[in-house]
Amino acid sequence: MKLTHTLLTLSLVATTAIFAGCGQTADKSASTSSQVDSDLLIESEPADAKDVGEVFEASKDGDEVTIVGRIGGSQAPFVDGLAAFTIVDTGIPHCADDEGCPTPWDYCCTTNQLPGNQATVKIVDESGQPIPKTAKGLLGINELSVVVVKGNAVRDDAGNLSVTANQVYVKDKK
Question: What value does the CA radius of gyration of the chain take, rounded to a whole number of Å?
Fold first, then answer.
């Protein structure tokens, strides 16, 4: 009886893992913040948005930027518990649906094109503090969503680009 119970439990765990998707990571905090924050979302697309690669090349620390990109660049582009994620230049192709890639947003087919075409977006409140909610639920976005964010460029010592943003336009939810 005990062996049957153990085997049944293991079978249920294995079935759950299979249906959850190979290579996909669960966003545990998305369900706790499923309310979209309309104060952060802007209703119309800014006309002056530039692709990630162009902003990466031209921006300096502190510059005001309006940047457009597709959420991705890794298997887990969202930061758990913070409104932060990575975006990739929309001109860089992600893995096609017909290739059978379980995580096309990780750009595993074009990783060599990511340097210089990727940025981290950190959504901040009016005082400049990071918002402690996962962006997926806060903004109603997913992996491969296309977003336009307005904010300030932040460059680290290695030259990586981050954008502290307080306005987001969701161009394509995916």
Answer: 18
Q: What is the pTM of this model?
A: 0.77
Here the tokens at position 104 are 């096309």
Looking up tokens 């990780």, which residue turns up? 106
d(CA 102, CA 18): 12
Evaluate whether 121 touches 41 at the Cβ level (below 8 Å): no
For residue 124, the 8-state DSSP code is: B
Give the whole-angstrom CA distance, residue 20 versus residue 4.
24
In 21-141, which residue ranges form alpha helices assigned H by DSSP? 52-58, 135-139
Tens of pLDDT, residues 92-117: 999 877 777 889 999 988 999 999 99
Token pair, residue 84, equals: 């932060």
Question: Do residues 167 and 151 lie in contact, with contact meaning Cβ atoms separated by under 8 Å?
Answer: yes
Percent of the chain with pLDDT over 70: 78
